[in-house]
Amino acid sequence: MSAELVEIPGYVAGTWVVDPVHSEVGFTVRHLMISKVKGRFAVFESRIVTAADPLDSSVTATIDMASVDTGNAQRDDHLRNSDFFEVDEHPTAAYRSTGLHREGSGFLLEGELTLKGVTRPVPLHLELHGFGPDPYLDDPFSGARLGLTATGELDRTDFGIDYNGPIPGGGVAIGEKVRLTLEIQAALQTDAAA
Q1: pTM tops 0.85
Q2: Is residue 106 part of a domain?
């Protein structure tokens, strides 16, 4: 048994599918240099494989870029057009992990994000909240759930998303740095469901 397994109470190796009803893929970007705007993507899917050695685990994910929701329909339509996501040409974004490392009390997930046809490394800091039984099954102990928070940052101009405008007195309307926050709950797949 790996020493890492001992350090993760209740650790379960297996294949997991993210539950979109109990998960969120969100982002935050600075607006007018004085405030922040938050948004999320309503449609996404992800598969997590927890290996016998946790550091061999992997993640893949896709996001429907048209499902962007910032709470303002006009702004969301603008984000979908060629100034930003260009969803007609690039309807999805994809993430693929390339490595996992210990980082303090959490983990650092190395990975590549493909957005608007451009692939760049985007590491994510993981806080693992734990593993537990699935209370929605007839036998909760025949399945399991895992929970984690992932955070990271990217520069949107690295992906060819460089639309902006100057504001009086200096600065720009939209920040280049985008903060990512993912709240994830995933369900263990049984042999029949995998």
Answers
A1: yes
A2: yes
Alpha-carbon distance of 136 to 161, in angstroms, equals: 41
**b/e code 35-59 from CB counts within 10 Å (16+ = b):** eebebbbeebebbbebeeebeebbb
Its domain, for residue 177, covers 3-188
- Considering the domain boundaries, does residue 96 fall inside one? yes
User: What's the confidence (pLDDT) of residue 98?
Assistant: 98
In a domain, 93, yes or no: yes
Number of domains the chain contains: 1
CATH number for the domain spanning 25: value is 2.40.128.110
Is residue 89 exposed (0-12), middle (13-18) or buried (19+ Cβ within 10 Å)?
exposed
Tell me the pLDDT tens digit for each residue of 76-104.
Answer: 999 999 989 999 999 999 999 999 999 98
Bigger pLDDT: 145 vs 35: 145
Residue 148: phi and psi, rounded to 5, are -155, 160
Whether 194 maps to a domain, the answer reads no
Identify the top-confidence range among 50-64, 132-146, 172-186: 50-64
Tens digit of each residue's pLDDT (9 = 90 or more) over 142-184: 578 999 999 999 999 999 998 777 667 666 678 889 999 999 9
